[in-house]
Design goal:
Strand content: under 5%
Order of helices and strands: HHHHHHHH
Number of strands: 0
Helix content: over 70%
Number of helices: 8
């Protein structure tokens, strides 16, 4: 079993609060204050969980620089007061950065009791299998 330090638990909590604030900011018609707080908490929490050096190494890889620019640029656009445009740019950067993790997350989610049953239905399963093949290319 992987040992999680108290410091990493704090980082997980901050990331969770960040995602919660982002969700509330989107639900409440792109409230720029909630989105800004959510972005900051998510980035700080991620940095605390995996460490500063690994975070910098992940975000500034040569093949991920376009996604990093879009993600961090979207955060800046949100902070400057254009929440909808910033979230669209940030979403593109997020998908570009983390697209390699989606198949792993999808296979994990397929093993969960209720959600896995839904995702393994014939139509949805065929759609998701097609997505997995496109990402692997």
């Amino acid at each position: 079993m992987i040992q999680v330090t108290d410091f990493q638990k704090i980082g997980i909590g901050l990331s969770g609060f960040g995602v919660t604030f982002l969700f509330l900011g989107i639900i409440l018609f792109f409230d720029k204050g909630l989105l800004a707080i959510g972005n900051i908490l998510f980035i700080v929490g991620l940095t605390i969980v995996i460490g500063l050096q690994r975070t910098v190494r992940f975000f500034f890889q040569v093949q991920k620089i376009k996604g990093t620019t879009a993600f961090l640029g979207g955060i800046l656009v949100v902070l400057f007061g254009w929440p909808f445009v910033g979230m669209v740019i940030e979403l593109y950067g997020f998908v570009s950065l983390f697209s390699g993790f989606f198949p792993v997350a999808l296979s994990f989610i397929r093993r969960l009791p209720v959600i896995g049953t839904v995702l393994n239905m014939p139509g949805i399963s065929r759609l998701l299998d097609g997505y997995d093949k496109r990402v692997d290319m």
